[in-house]
Amino acid sequence: MARTVPVGGQPLVLLPERAVYLPDASALLVADAHFGKAQTFRRRGVTVPAGTTSGNLARLSGLLSRTGARS
């Protein structure tokens, strides 16, 4: 569930998908995207679950749709 908190007079919407939405700026801040991490690990022989990048992209797509963020 999202939670809105005021910081410096601005609302920040804390999202459970490891992101923060700044409605006044229409901006989405994302943490822990790890793009390319699975490929790098696999190249070094570390087993990683399949679908990590597509899962991250789906999460971002959903966040962009839900928030309407532009930047």
Structure in words:
The chain is of the alpha+beta class and about 70 residues long. The chain has helices at about 35-45, 50-65; strands spanning about 5, 10-15, 20, 25-30. It has a four-stranded antiparallel β-sheet, with helices on one face. The longest helix has 16 residues, at about 50-65. About 5% of the residues are buried. The mean pLDDT is about 90.
Contiguous low-pLDDT stretches (5 residues minimum) are none
- Enumerate the strands of the largest sheet in spatial order, edge to edge or round the barrel: 1-2-3-4
Give the beta-strand count: 4
Radius of gyration: 15 Å
Taking the alpha carbons of the first and last residues, their distance comes to 22 Å
Q: In one word, what is the shape?
A: elongated
Strand content: 25-35%
Structural class: alpha+beta
Bin the helical content: 25-40%
Comma- or semicolon-separated keywords:
4-stranded antiparallel β-sheet; 71 residues; 27% strand; 4 strands; alpha+beta
